[in-house]
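Reading a protein record of the kind used here takes little practice once its layout is understood. The fold follows as a row of integers, each naming the local backbone shape at the matching residue. With these conventions in mind, the following record can be read line by line:

_____
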Amino acid sequence: MEKVKQGTEISGKGVYAMISKAVCERVLQAAVSTGADYAEIFAENTLNHTINMISDKVDTIGDTVVAGAAVRVYKGLRSVMASTVDTSEAGLLRCAGQAAEALGQGKAEIDIVLKDSKFEDIHPIKIVPANVENKDKIAILKDAYFAAKGYNDAIVQVEGTFLDVDHNILIASTDGVYAQDRQIRTRLMISAVAEVNGETQTGGCRPGRRMGLEMFEFIDPKATGIHAAKQAVTMAGAGYCPAGVMPVAIDNGFGGVIFHEACGHSLEASSVAYGQSQFCGKLGQKIANEKVTAIDDGTIPGAWGSINIDDEGTPSRKRVLIEKGVLKTYMIDKFNGRRMGMESTASSRRQSYAYIPTSRMTNTYIAAGTDKNEDIIASIEYGLYAADMGGGSVNPVTGEFNFAVNEGYIIRKGKICEPVRGASLVGKGSQIIQDIDMVGTVMDMGQGMCGSSSGSVPTNVGQPLIRVSSITVGGR
């Protein structure tokens, strides 16, 4: 990547002292003036930079700045949040006063002393996107775009996007927290459309990391484009998937979206604390096949969903959710932890200051097992190989889900055979994790944006190749 200028390596901590410690203490004191037992300031300054390419040329280049602050107060299980774009001391005091007034009448009983929070920065940035000229980012995008466009004559349309985000946050709270973090992320997204015999299908590839442009030292833009185009061409020439109940092998990487959606959301305190989860009251119980160990880990260096601290200022950690089939913990934020009588697991996340934070996933995956990939495929007499998963829907209360298979193949007599399109997987989260009876040795992750009540946040999903012994496959 010779064209990209090397930047100075930076740390994620203390990049911008957006609001001084002394100002935060005064604002928090105003926030608890009517009797709140907890108050918090969340401030951010975020730059989103995008370059979009379609019809063989750069279509748009855009910058969006999100800047502001929110003051949140609790009293018992009651919570109030107010937000403002005025981050001066006067503006923050007004915001704190509004939150305090909405909470009710009472008397302040908290002495506030803020201390700098100590945490390790696990994501040093080597090439800061803001220091790189657009022409160099466009060169990367073009490499991916034209690799997809030139893959096969069947490719009729390609769209590409280069995205970099510089997300700076500050959290101060009456717990004594005073923490700052700089979260830089980079992503390349290619979508290709192929037409075969009048039928069109779409393929995609969207790698991203919590990194600067050093991400492209090990992610090849051309390979990204070819992956998207190959998937589109393969699926456009495929027949339809037959419907029925059968064993399914789900590949690694974005295949982990099944666990993320069908089970992960049901393990978040935002569902568990209100009794709206299929896994309520099951800590310590066996809920999955003993081959299943599921983890949410926000501490993986450079991973798309990683965080140094959560959005309540708690240092990130690795959480083993399910160990050899046994439910070990939930993902918990401070407020929902109150309702549950449990401490935060550093799982509080929000899209921006305009959203109330709640428990969310970071990098969530099924850990590697001991089954060889070839043995997993060979074990299936007739079934489906889901090489790449798409979107879907899930009810976290019941765990019932429906997911599209972006790229699928029929397995016959232990061999991967012809490609099929139009496949979907239908089931229930609590059942599928019991029916995962083979788990491969190589875990990989895919990147996505997860939407929930606190907005859209970057999350990784992952797993090795797994076998689900029996699941309903939708098709024709």
